[in-house]
Amino acid sequence: MKIAVIGAAGMVGAEVVTEAVRRGHDVTAVFRGTVTEVPAGVRVVRGDAADHAFTTAVLSGVDGAVAATRPRPGQEATVGPTTTALLDAALAAATRMIVVGGAAPLRSPGGTGLVLDDTRFVPPHIRPIAAASVRQLEACRAHAADWVYLSPPALLEPGERTGTYRRGVDELLTGPSAISAADLAVAVLDELENPGVDRHFTVAS
Question: In 62-123, at which residue ranges do the beta strands (DSSP E only) sit?
Fold first, then answer.
């Protein structure tokens, strides 16, 4: 497959690039700022994901795309518009896109509310970025593009690749509610290669 990874400099994006190369895919890594080291054979481009013409050109002829962008602190309000711009480009290029978002839009385990409002998982200092991920999913749901939204569990951090994970739908997985970025990338590539039926899903180790 030809795959574009937007936000390749981030923790998740870098792992998705690595996993895609591991599986033998043709990968384009898209960077907004400083270009970091990528595996051999990866095509590197630099530009603004919100630039429609740029992103549409990158996605042209691509079989699947991964949006793994994350706003800078204080710029959480850009998440919704950036997501819409990415989906506009995906629609124009007729490309399926997996949006790697946040856990906040998931239902809190054992309850009817969102993780966003559950202080066990969202302390006050991370609420701005958590709320942005809720708006991000809303932007996806309002869009006609072929999208899938992946919510990580409560804890996402660097770690070893085990190659395994649990998959859920729209409720936060617990016991534990955690996964390594490398195993999240495994889930992303599995979804690209063998699409599921859920437009919003989650995973955990």
Answer: 64-67, 96-100
Q: Which CATH class is domain 2-204?
A: alpha beta
Token reading at 17 = 């690039």
Alpha-carbon 18 to chain mean position: 15
Q: Give dist(CA 38, CA 9) in Å, integer.
A: 9
- Show the tokens assigned to 11: 């923790």
* Residue from 202, 12, 205 nearest 109 by CA: 202
Contact 200, 137 (CB under 8 A): yes
pLDDT digits (tens, 9 = 90+) for 40-86: 999 999 999 889 999 999 999 999 999 999 888 888 899 999 999 99
The 10 Å Cβ neighbour count of residue 79 is 22
The bridge status of strand 64-67 relative to strand 96-100 is: parallel
DSSP type of residue 102: -
- Reported as a single tens digit per residue, the pLDDT across 77-91 is 999 999 999 999 999
Q: Is a pLDDT exceeding 90 seen at residue 195? A: yes
Distance of CA 20 to CAs 2, 113, 122, 174, Å?
10, 35, 31, 27
Domain map (residue ranges) of the chain: 2-204
Q: How many other C-beta atoms are found inside a 10 Å radius of the C-beta of residue 157? A: 10
Task: Give the single-character DSSP code of 116.
Answer: G
